[in-house]
């Protein structure tokens, strides 16, 4: 979801709605994921963080198979809970 970071979380309503549906355990939204990371029950909270990615050197890639390094940039969205979506979107 690299393209989500092109705008702020507040301006990215599809992402906020996506998180809201994850918190509600929406089957159609969970079906968009390769696997359900919450098989027993929906999460209580979701946090979205941003990272800067850079390719590794050929030496590092050959040595340990790592293609990318990442450095944290900070929060993309504040911590959200199902209560934040209790009255709808």
Strand content bin: 25-35%
- Main sheet, how many strands, which sense, barrel? 2 strands, antiparallel
Determine the number of helices (DSSP H or I, runs of at least 4 residues). Answer: 3
Question: How are the strands of the biggest sheet laid out side by side?
Answer: 1-2
Q: How would you sum up the global shape? A: globular
> What's the Cα radius of gyration?
16 Å
The average pLDDT score comes to 92
Q: Tell me the total number of β-strands.
A: 2
Helix content: 25-40%
Give the helices and strands as they follow along the chain: HHEHE
Question: For the terminal residues, how far apart are their CA atoms?
Answer: 20 Å
Number of self-contained structural domains: 1
Q: Oligomeric form of this entry?
A: single chain
Overall SS class = alpha+beta
Uncertain parts: none
What are its keywords?
89 residues; alpha+beta; two-stranded antiparallel ribbon; 2 strands; 26% helix; 28% strand
Structural overview:
It is built from 3 helices and 2 strands; from the N terminus they run ααβαβ. The protein is of the alpha+beta class. The protein has one domain. Strands 1-2 form a two-stranded antiparallel ribbon. The radius of gyration is 16 Å and the shape is globular. The two termini are 20 Å apart. The mean pLDDT is 92.
List the helices and strands and how they pair.
Layout: H1 13-24, H2 27-30, E1 45-55, H3 58-64, E2 68-81
Antiparallel strand pairs: 1-2
Q: What is the gist of this entry?
A:
The chain has helices spanning 13-24, 27-30, 58-64; strands at 45-55, 68-81.
